[in-house]
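Workshop exercise sheet. Pairs work together: one partner reads the sequence aloud, the other fills in the structure field after running the prediction. Swap roles for the next sheet.
Pair: D.N. / O.F.
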Amino acid sequence: GWSSIVMAASSSSLSVVMVLLLCLAALASAQLSPTFYSTSCPKALATIKAAVTAAVAQEPRMGASLLRLHFHDCFGCDASVLLNDTATFTGEQTASPNAGSIRGFAVVDNIKAQVEAVCPKTVSCADILAVAARDSVVALGGPSWQVLLGRRDSTTASLSQANSDLPAPSLNLTGISGLVGAFANKSLCQTDLVALSGAHTIGQSQCKNFRAHIYNDTNINSGFATQRRANCPAAAGNGDSTLAPLDTQTPTAFDNAYYRNLMSQSGLLHSDQQLFNGGATDSLVRTYASNPSRFNRDFAAAMIKMGNISPLTGSQGEIRVACSKLSSTFYDTSCPNALSTIKSGVTAAVNKENRMGASLLRLHFHDCFVQASTLSYISHMHSSIVAVLLMQQATTLICDKSSLMMNGCDASVLLNDTATFTGEQTAFPNAGSIRGFGVIDSIKAQVEAICPQTVSCADILAVIARDSVVALGGPSWTVPLGRRDSTTANLSLANSDLPAPFFNLSQLVTAFSNKGFSATEMVTLSGAHTVGEAQCKNFRDHIYNDTDINAAFATSLKANCPRPTGSGDTNLAPLDTTTSYTFDNAYYNNLLNQKGLLHSDQELFNGGSTDNTVRNFASNSASFGSAFAAAMVKMGNLSPLTGSQGQIRLTCSKLASPGIMASASCCGLIIIGLLVALASSSATTQLSSTFYATSCPNATSTIQSAVNAAVAQEARMGASLLRLHFHDCFGCDASVLLNDTSGEQSSPPNAGSLRGFSVIDGIKAQVEAICPQTVSCADILAVAARDSVVALGGPSWTVLLGRRDSAASFPNETTDLPAPTSNLSSLITAFSNKQLNTTDLVALSGAHTIGQARCVSFAGHIYNDTNINATFAASLQANCPAAGNNNLAPLDTQTPTSFDTAYYSNLMAQKGLLHSDQELFNGGTTDSTVTSFASSSSAFTTAFTAAMRAMASCLIALLVAAALSSAATAQLSSTFYDTSCPNALSTIKSGVDAAVAQEARMGASLLRLHFHDCFVQASAPSYPITHA
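Structure field:
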């Protein structure tokens, strides 16, 4: 549990404690810190504050504008929003939520110039934005907070993500694309949503953003609506940019008036009023409206949390000299001759064989395009596949499904197959087709000779592609550098992602759209077919079967490409018969004359939506050249690995040895760190299955033995231990174990319900006997939960270790735990708030295949609900009066002490014991998952183990406390105790086994303890706040 930890710490003289939340998209070499510039640029913060104060004094609205800039940047926090568009680069400023709306760029440029004057090339634009946002709030009378620093600036931007990620003013509270979901996608909970929306206590909005609300919505004060209509006509296009204050009471004062406006139905935007509209956030709006100090506290906490959404740190990204434009100087110091060396190698190769230019360009394309485009790729994968992938990465922290994505532009296409590795070169679009590997190897060798282990193969490919185009007479462009090389490759993605030569226009548009490219950019990049050749097998169908081809052109090709499949398949023909080895716009003229070699080529000019673009490029070579350069820069920035991600290969065709290989990155890890003054150095925090391998090698076996004994003694104990972990693990910090009259054990979801504490105490005693003060209770709970499941016949999984125990327990935080009366929507929301999807929800609910529940928890279901088998209900009513009592009933009546899929079969027969159980199979979105798990035990066990890992890993609380250690590197690992307590796990296991053997129910109890421990996690911690 976390709420009020800081206040509690302050009252006990730990006022130096600051709680901070780090959201790492990758392992960073340096963590964010409020003192990051103390040595390198001690005047940075004062310089920023002075400039912000002056700007706000000159124009109060500027405070809101700077705050909004940070918000619109910080669904990423990398200063990407500051990048101006250029002829070869499209940024985020023209995205719908930004165009004509975000402002304050001149102020940021001015601040950057002042900071550069005192500390050249030191302070990032991303950090300047974060500090300026804080100082703007303070300048307008709001709270202050410590801004964590050390961000780096992005080397790219994403128009499509800006359009999709930023919440629109028309959003509802819930739903597929609602406010709650938009914030949850960034690991921000409902409290964060409502608190951050309080930024609308300052600033203004354009008529076009609130027109629909004041004319069409019914949840608006009529007098307020009338007042707003006077300056915002109903007709679209009329007065669109006319401004109105978001808070009419105190428009330039940062206070809590915004929430009072909502309570009187005077929210300016539809999305504002949704926060107080009979929904789940109403109570929080009331709290903030009546309690300004609570709002200030939560707002500051949410700003710190938002400021840590996927920052670039360490060697990732860059430090821009001017915030509005990129630096392409990545290797200027580390390898100043890299680009000239690459260019010489390309020029020599193309001079030797003209076709090589096209081959090298194609290699870059085939490398960059193999990439899961968005989270939707993984979310559409079958849950069991995701679960298997998770299980295969037992020693790598997988924090969410997005971490399974392939990255684009990572040189994965260059990796050769080996006896134990299958790369992308044998994929259908690549096999016998891509070439130029020898040239790549030669250039890499030359670069290594002057700058060992410095320049990545991915960067070499990107530069080579540009230099190949230039060598063939095409345009040049500045290549952003700093990519890292992948440590894997993906044959299936290569097969699925690369556009095929037989694609029609619709398929082409979709394939490119999946990578964030428009139809125009698709036509542009296809212009690379102005050079190069294709094999007969790729154009045979077009020249023999299609009608949209010039007859004479088809005849000329047939002479060297026989109709029978397998005959002349590899015979080559130029993609551009006019100027085969000159990079020009002749390709488009060919299309106008129905002389496209591939079916997919001619589809671009075949009476469809791209015809006009083809005509434009055919008649305007300059237009094509500039568009091609811009599209290539964009393609080169498809999800590159940066910073400490991936590796720098020595030879592009094979992985670097482990000794020089960078750590594989984890994705989306949410870490709650408790730092004290003594914990001042950087620490890389990561869960690992080998965390105790050295410190306590017998830890897991000890735990397992104890669990087995406990379950053998009482089968129910397995469920109890599993439940303990669940109730802990919306926090995973062992807070649920703390005895306290006002702690979590006495809260409604836990009181009189949780059990197995004595088993945990027994295990802890055994582990302490072999490894004093080494193995945390939180780790014991996690291992005991796993061993409980195994003891009752369920699956096993690798438990990532290295948690620390919380220092406090707070009953109010158990509101996170789903109630047995929850409906499906509430369950989905509760799990979504913990970054668990509906499959995880259904899988984790399968823990109810063991254990028992009290009558008071299911009386309402068996007496009042209609979605319950009548005979089943009657049998339960015999031992459970309508008023409810503490009599027990098994959650799974078929096999109550066996961990199997019977629970799901029960649901399909309307025999779920709890209302919340039966909601999973009640005509809703989870019915199909229940059906799948009921019929496939492997699908269930695979999904369950993956979900258990997700629950314990992604929601983990890592505490670095001075009482236990100074700022040593804290890393979660399954071998964490191998040295400090080698018998810890075996001791735990023995204890669990004994407890479950004595009472089978104990397994469920222990599992539940872990669940209840891990599920209790404040979405935003408390922070020390000073008021201006």
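Discussion prompt: The chain has a mean pLDDT of 78. What would you look at next?
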